[in-house]
Design a protein that fits this description.
212 residues
């Protein structure tokens, strides 16, 4: 991971899952502090003002066991958060590496979804495949963020401006064909790819563009 990707991760707003994980980590850290305070108070009482019949060793052992469990849980939460961040960075890097393909697949998804039958699917897909190779379109895609490029091409080609939906469908296709890792960070075995979902009745999924 390069410095630019690290900076983007640190500057990006936290997701609800990350905010919840951070809150849990703060709670666990505070719980560990309280347990340490209890152990210190117990030691002070045992040394300076011992109470008759009090088993201070047992009391400290109980708190120490609870503290160990708290620290283990805190470590588990921290590691899980780090793994999620690494997976998100890996996915973002792959999306950038295949930026052009992602935009093209998003536009193919839009073309497919607005088509009423196989004949229209074939016509619209052929049009998209031809248009995305035009120099002015290729330049727009290369110079723009995916959201901007897809929105502009939707306006230009008369597709519904459902940018997020088209990009999500593109990401699903890229995951399926192994161009980017899954969002959950668990890479599928390339020798055993997932079964494709069936197309809607009356239409067939267009083939992905030839990436050469």
């Amino acid at each position: 991971m390069d410095k630019a990707q690290t900076d983007r991760m640190s500057e990006a707003p936290a997701t609800p899952q990350e905010e919840r994980a951070a809150r849990h980590l703060r709670m666990l850290a505070r719980a560990a502090e309280i347990q340490m305070e209890i152990m210190e108070a117990t030691r002070t009482e045992a040394v300076e003002a011992p109470q008759p019949g009090a088993d201070y060793c047992k009391r400290i052992a109980v708190v120490a066991k609870s503290l160990r469990q708290t620290l283990l849980l805190e470590d588990k939460f921290a590691n899980h958060r780090d793994e999620r961040r690494k997976a998100a960075a890996k996915r973002e890097s792959a999306q950038e590496d295949w930026h052009d393909l992602r935009v093209k697949l998003a536009m193919l998804a839009a073309a497919y979804e607005v088509s009423e039958d196989d004949e229209e699917v074939d016509r619209r897909v052929a049009e998209v495949c031809e248009r995305v190779e035009r120099p002015e379109v290729a330049e727009l895609i290369a110079a723009s963020r995916p959201e901007v490029a897809v929105a502009a091409l939707c306006r230009r080609w008369g597709f519904p401006p459902q940018v997020e939906r088209w990009l999500e469908m593109a990401d699903e296709a890229m995951e399926h064909y192994g161009f980017i890792p899954p969002e959950d960070g668990d890479d599928d075995d390339p020798e055993d790819p997932p079964e494709p979902r069936p197309a809607a009745p009356g239409r067939r999924r267009p083939k992905p563009p030839d990436t050469g």
